[in-house]
Write a structure and sequence with these properties.
The complex is a heterodimer of chains A (about 170) and B (about 170). Chain A has about 170 residues and is mainly α. Chain A has helices at about 10-25, 30-50, 55-75, 75-85, 105-115, 120-130, 135-145, 145-165; one strand spanning about 95-100. With about 170 residues, chain B is an alpha+beta fold. The longest helix of chain B is centred in the middle third of the chain and has 27 residues, at about 55-80. The chains are: A mainly alpha (about 170), B alpha+beta (about 170).
């Protein structure tokens, strides 16, 4: 993310990569609004204090987002418990993915639903691998698990999705 | 990974995460706006102003260059045989102590002026970046022997100027 190292260019970068980071944050937060808060907090912190650090900025940001999400969850634990008791705040009404022209909307919703039903540990690995394009090593560092465990969870997640999705499309 | 899983992986990669809301991007824009460097004040005084701070640096450089020249030419003079016909210089004619080379001229030539467009994140007021390209020339002279040193150096100057659109 060399572009973010120059003043002003971060905006273009965030427009391009922000959606992936938000999707990632949504794995660890209770709503889109919370995800926006933690990505904002992590990105501003990254820009102010970490942008000159060596390494892959995307991986740094994802780690920073996860920490921000954990902090956010701790701060809001009481409110979250109330929301959970009331049955709200667990999911967003909007979908996580952008409708594409000419796409099969039912299929998109089906994939999205199957993703939501995955165990959290598998889903977060899948999101980090597919939409944030991290390596298993980077995922392992972010989630504080061995890289082999990340790779296993990824395969389990794909297998579980395939099992749940309409077999007409996938053999 | 077997083929069906590969297909599923490719299908998932086709899904694009939902776009970020403009309001959210604007919020971050506001948070980070303070990080952008403040627009520089328009500079009307250039290096031609002999009292400017730049001349302190140039004078130091000039003094160093003069010392180097004196050292070099001084050695050559000692090695050169003195013709018997040239009268010896009386002591009273010895130059006074002080810097041999003095800055006598500075000029800058503007050879390119380019509007580089709007500055991102400049806030509601708006600003444009203008790049001016100069060639600066500085001249030092030694009054004792009229030797001179000329230094030519390119310089880019970027100004961020407030800009607003007035439809009237």
């Amino acid at each position: 993310m060399e572009a973010t190292h120059e003043p002003g260019t971060w905006k273009l970068w965030l427009e391009a990569h922000g959606p992936k980071l938000l999707l990632c944050a949504r794995q660890w937060t209770r709503s889109l609004a919370d995800a926006e808060d933690v990505v904002q907090e992590a990105f501003v912190r990254y820009w102010r204090h970490q942008r000159h650090l060596p390494g892959d900025p995307q991986a740094l940001l994802v780690t920073s987002i996860r920490r921000a999400a954990l902090d956010h969850a701790r701060r809001n634990a009481r409110r979250a418990a109330r929301e959970e008791k009331a049955g709200g705040g667990l999911e967003d009404r909007d979908g996580a993915f952008e409708p594409a022209p000419g796409e099969d909307a039912d299929r998109r919703r089906e994939l999205e639903g199957a993703l939501q039903r995955l165990p959290a540990g598998q889903r977060e690995v899948l999101v980090l691998k597919i939409w944030n394009e991290l390596t298993f090593e980077q995922i392992g560092e972010t989630l504080e698990i061995p890289a082999n465990t990340a790779a296993s969870r990824y395969r389990y997640a794909l297998a579980a999705l395939r099992k749940e999705l309409n077999p007409a499309c996938h053999g | 990974m077997d083929e069906p899983l590969q297909e599923l992986e490719n299908e998932l990669k086709q899904l694009q995460p939902r776009r970020a809301r403009a309001r959210w991007l604007e919020q971050i824009n506001r948070d980070l706006a303070a990080e952008l460097p403040a627009p520089p004040r328009p500079r009307y005084a250039t290096a031609t102003n002999l009292g400017s701070w730049k001349w302190l640096g140039w004078r130091t450089t000039a003094a160093a260059a003069a010392l180097a020249l004196v050292a070099t030419f001084g050695v050559v003079t000692l090695r050169r045989p003195v013709p018997a016909a040239i009268p010896a210089i009386p002591d009273s004619a010895a130059p006074a102590a002080g810097p041999a080379y003095e800055p006598v001229a500075a000029s800058n030539v503007l050879y390119d002026l380019k509007d580089e467009g709007a500055v991102p994140g400049a806030g509601e007021a708006g600003a444009r970046r203008v790049r001016a390209r100069y060639v600066d020339t500085y001249t030092w002279k030694n009054p004792r022997n009229n030797a001179s040193i000329k230094w030519t150096v390119p310089r880019d100057e970027i100004r961020v100027v407030p800009a607003s659109y007035n439809p009237n």
